[in-house]
């Protein structure tokens, strides 16, 4: 037997070569495996140097994030200096004013991510791609389905989500399961009561449970000018509609659009007479006190519905919003508006530190802490791993978290384009006018279309055509979630 | 009379010296006025002119915040004004603002004047009433709006009180009825700003000369006739001032309407300030907002010029009345 030609020098050379080829990646891999997401962000932030950041954020949101900001300050030297505490509904205006002044005074804005196209077009936003790459953590990539594309625009990632804010379906389980009610309903409609699968099924249930003499109304959906339009999108998208064709021609004055307007106005039959002026402060108390049979509502309301002060605790069934067969197949669509996210100011001198602070809030561990508070429920789940997370499930109940997870697969944005607020308000104004009888139902879509055509001309058709890709990318690819 | 006599006695020697002294005095007064006013005028112009010029630039150049820098905006000439003047939404906003301003001015005036009539003769404990009547004016409008939201809902305390008073079920939809929403803001405006009219009318009533009223009393005129034929004519300039100031203020009302309705239900509370805000800060069309502001400013300037003219005419007619009274009193004295 020929002895193998192993010499000490060859062995040494070979070993060195292997070490040379594999050693470096192995060291890197070890570091990645050893370091948590948080540590990776801290390491990147340390290189940027410490800073005290100024942010624009509503205190009702910031309270959940404060402890983590202090923790980040300890670990990286970057913390929060000053906060401008204003409502998330006013931050679009204030942040646009910052785009105008280009002062760089604020390092980050906590705002509806649907403002990303307008704010990016105004030149205010810093793309986060390089910071994501440097830290090796991308929170938006952990969102369910195409939900992460709500953070992306024109090929760049601009936001770190903090609040998923999807509309799930709330139905009064106790009424749905009540034998007497079931019998009465079956006698009247010739079918058994069940969790509504379509808007039409839900409307029948709502009509059945609308009992003004008992201060009970079928619908708890909002119909005020500021929020009501959000519901219209769900009806429209689920009927197979989309707002524009590829040439940026409005496509709302269509069958799907008419179907959506009709259903939007039909809800009046089952709504409280004052619904035209009610927002969340008026409607949530009515939901949790049992004056409403069903609604599509922001998922954070689960905590109130199941909270200690609720008179309907344990009486709710949660699920995905009803769908529509109008297009020939059943499609379910929900909406997220506002989907709150941290956006970084391009004009800030501390933009790098602000980006790392945002990423730190967006890790699984930290975001789970933010969204799982039992009573401070302004932040709602968005991370795919929030769905199985023990604390988050405790906060939202297993049935609730199941509904949220399924709803995320079918969640849509409003008009994810530059000029979002104006596109939306043109529609909201006309819907609201029709709801209170100022104009006829069949005037809503032609009037909106005319306003949109004017706006497209102002913004520029070619610009918007390019942006359509980002809008479409945020649309779900699932029609009926499992 | 004595003055005339002394002037005559002074004759040719004193007259030039007196005239010279008068001229010097007038010059000193004028110099003093300008010394006081100049810094304020300069400051006002320094602030006002750049703003007006910038606004003028925006009105002639189409610029939306998210579409590039303002200095690159496209020149559109009078196009933006044409757009504003042909916008039916703007037209309706003017109609709503006029309705709101006229209604609230009238309401504030009637109640404020009524309270002033009750209060202008001193009585024991009137300081407490002054404080009470002035309190609404010191309340922040946004607080009024949120308080109203709690009080005025369909099942709220206001309807409960009305139900108790009328012994009927009252379900007025103050906050959600499209026919009532703007009137609700008007009622809040009247509550908020009646004290302003009250103060002006109280000052006017207190400053009225006593002689004509006393003369009318001596002649046996009734209280109503004294009010109608003596006090009211003398108060006319003050009344006009109160109405004009209140009207201009009401045309600019924004916080209550916005906090309660944001232009809704439908567009029933979309007044001029609300529509300008929506255009500028929700749609970010700064140019259209600037053009609208200019149109409104011109409209208000016309109203103010007419008001000044009316006020001057009133003052002149009042001067004639006073002069006549002075002559009559002097005649009686002689």
Tell me which oligomeric state these chains represent. heterodimer
> What is the CATH superfamily of the largest domain in chain A?
Periplasmic binding protein-like II
What is the CATH homologous superfamily assignment of chain B? MetI-like
CATH topology of chain B: MetI-like fold
Structural class of the helices, strands and pairings of chain B?
mainly alpha
Separation, N- and C-terminal Cα atoms of chain B: 9 Å
Report the biggest beta sheet of chain A as strand number plus sense, adding barrel if it closes: 5 strands, mixed
| Reported CATH architecture of chain B | Orthogonal Bundle
What spatial order of strands do you see in the largest sheet of chain B?
1-2
Q: What is the third-level CATH name, the topology of the largest domain in chain A?
A: D-Maltodextrin-Binding Protein, domain 2
Indicate the CATH architecture of the largest domain in chain A: 3-Layer(aba) Sandwich
Q: Give the fraction of residues assigned to helices of chain A.
A: 40-55%
Number of strands of chain B: 2
Terminal-residue CA separation of chain A: 65 Å
- Name the shape of chain A in a single word: globular
Estimate the helix proportion of chain B, in percent. over 70%
Rg over C-alpha atoms of chain A, rounded to the nearest angstrom: 25 Å
| Helix-strand pattern of chain B | HEEHHHHHHHHHHH
pLDDT under 50 segments of chain A (min length 5)? 1-33
